[in-house]
Amino acid sequence: MMGSSPTAREARLQKKVEEALRSKMKARALKECDHVVSKFAECAKGRTFSVVWTCRFHSKELNECLHKFTNDDVLEEYKKQYILEQVNRQSS
């Protein structure tokens, strides 16, 4: 009996696609936040435990920047774009 649930193969494919989209999303976030990453890295250079309190402003700034590009809404946009690309490929 065929149900509406995806087969194991389709589920694995969906998971791989989502992982690839998350990876793409993270890469974009790092690129967009490069200036903030650099500031945090400079602050953290040569520090161990003190990085937690010494660089907390840079850490907060970095997390805020990364969150702009790595949240559920952004992932949904990546998924929509992926689906549109798949539809366009199939209709070509």
Distance between the termini: 33 Å
Specify the number of helices: 5
Q: Tell me about the largest β-sheet.
A: none
Radius of gyration: 19 Å
> Which class best fits the helix and strand makeup?
mainly alpha
Beta percentage is under 5%
What are the defining features of this structure?
elongated; 0% strand; 92 residues; 5 helices
Explain what this protein looks like in three dimensions.
The structure is a single chain. This protein is mainly alpha-helical. Helix content is 80%, strand content 0%. It is built from five helices and no strands. The chain has helices at residues 8-32, 34-44, 51-54, 56-69, 72-91. Helix 1 (8-32) packs across helix 5 (72-91) and helix 2 runs antiparallel to helix 4. The protein is elongated.
Task: Describe the secondary-structure layout.
Blueprint (H helix, E strand, L loop, with lengths): L7 H25 L1 H11 L6 H4 L1 H14 L2 H20 L1
Helix pairs in contact: 1-4, 1-5, 2-4
Short description:
This protein has 92 residues and is mainly α.
